[in-house]
Amino acid sequence: MDLDFVTLLHWTTRAIEVFGILAIVVGIVGATIRYLREWLSSAPGEDTYRTYRSSVGRSILLGLELLVAADIINTVAIEPSLQSLAVLAGIVAIRTFLSVSLEVEIDGRWPWRKEAAGRGERSRATLGDAVPLSSTRTPSQT
């Protein structure tokens, strides 16, 4: 009975790893097809490239999250040892660094600054100010 549970967990982690890899591959292929379709139909602009990079980054982020989940299940449930826990800590640290780096690259701001940025945009919108944030002037510029 115990061996069957370990086998089930092993296959579960493998399935999650396959879904993680598929998320990356399918996301990159889909983003590339959308990019090429847009590139061929019109003159590609900066927004087209940014959208492509964002889509690729998001698929990599999703894949990394799934791979981390598989590693956690594998380490905690299948091979609970100090050595495997240390390896998991290293893997999670590296993948977390990659995730944060990709998120900063995609969104252009730190992940913990999203809430503050959203509040600032909402408060400006409620004041009826239609000027985009990037084109506002400070008193010293006027």
In short:
The chain is mostly helical and 142 residues long.
SSE map:
Blueprint: H1 2-41, H2 46-78, H3 82-107, H4 114-126
Helix pairs in contact: 1-2, 2-3
Please tag this protein with its features.
mainly alpha
SSE run? HHHH
Helical residues, percent: over 70%
CA gyration radius, whole angstroms: 21 Å
Number of helices: 4
Strand content: under 5%
Main sheet properties: none
General description of the model:
By secondary structure, the protein is an all-alpha fold. It has one domain. 79% of the residues lie in helices and 0% in strands. The longest helix has 40 residues, at 2-41.
